[in-house]
Amino acid sequence: MKIQILISKNSWANKYKKVIKKNLRSFSKNIFFANNHKKLKKKYEICVLFSYFNFIEKKFLKFSKYNLILHESDLPKDRGMSPISWQILKGMKVLTFCILEAGNKIDNGKIYFKKKVKINENKIFSEIKEIQFANNLYLIEKFLKYYKKFNKAPKAKEQKGKPTYLKLRTPSDSKLNINKSIKSQFNLLRICDNETYPSFFNYKNHKFFIKLYKKK
User: Which of 14, 68, 81, 120 is deepest in the core (most CB within 10 A)?
Assistant: First the structure.
């Protein structure tokens, strides 16, 4: 089995490459990582879009037999970008993790597996990403175990219901309101990346950053 994995250059998932390779070694000795879909190789069985932010043209999807997308919402609700962050901002505590086939539109493909995951309200960004990684890896391994045993993909189900869409979060979405309490904005504080897009506020013509850490 030949597996290639797409992870964007600026993705949080890059630091997990070694772990991914180690965990998938039992399924394949041929694991190729790429940060651009134009670098994908032909004649691969599996392509995993682990954390990839760009649109992929149809011709590149043909390079692999199956193109798997990992998405963290109860599809077809909340298709699009940063689903975990947007859902935590809504106050959701139980999220749905999905592995699905790449479709002809954003996150509209058939779903292979779903998994419900509880994210405690005291988890901050680094911990949330660890949960995201662990459960995404679980779904990949579940698909690959089935494929290895039966030499085919598990049965996938069409999405049902009216889809909703999420916009891409930008650094400006990390802005705090100084007239509101920390408690009322804690969900925003805990989904901000301290390095890439820390929370901030403007006061007296200056921009101030706040970085959130948890005492161990």
Answer: 68
Rounded CA separation 158/176 (Å): 39
Superfamily of domain 2-166: Formyl transferase, N-terminal domain (3.40.50.170)
Domain boundaries along the sequence of the chain: 2-166, 171-210
Instruction: Kindly report the pTM of this predicted structure.
Output: 0.92
What crossing angle do the helices spanning 125-150 and 17-24 adopt, rounded to 10°? 30
User: Residue 212 and residue 150: Cα distance in Å, rounded?
Assistant: 46
| Nearest Cα to Cα of residue 188 among 51, 115, 88, 61 | 88
DSSP 134: H
At 89, list the tokens. Answer: 């901002």
Residue type, 206: H
Taking only the tens place, the pLDDT of each residue in 63-107 is 999 999 999 999 999 999 999 999 999 999 999 999 999 998 999
Q: How far apart are CA 5 and CA 1, in angstroms?
A: 13
CA dist., res. 129 & res. 153, Å (int): 27
Neighbour-count burial of 112, counting CB atoms closer than 10 A to its CB (0-12 exposed, 13-18 middle, 19+ buried): buried
Instruction: Report the C-alpha gap between 63 and 164 in whole angstroms.
Output: 30
SS3 69: strand
* Both structure tokens of 17: 């490459």
Instruction: At 141, list the tokens.
Output: 């391994």
Taking 80 as the threshold, does the pLDDT of residue 216 lie above it?
Answer: no
Beta strands 79-80; 165-166: pairing state: parallel
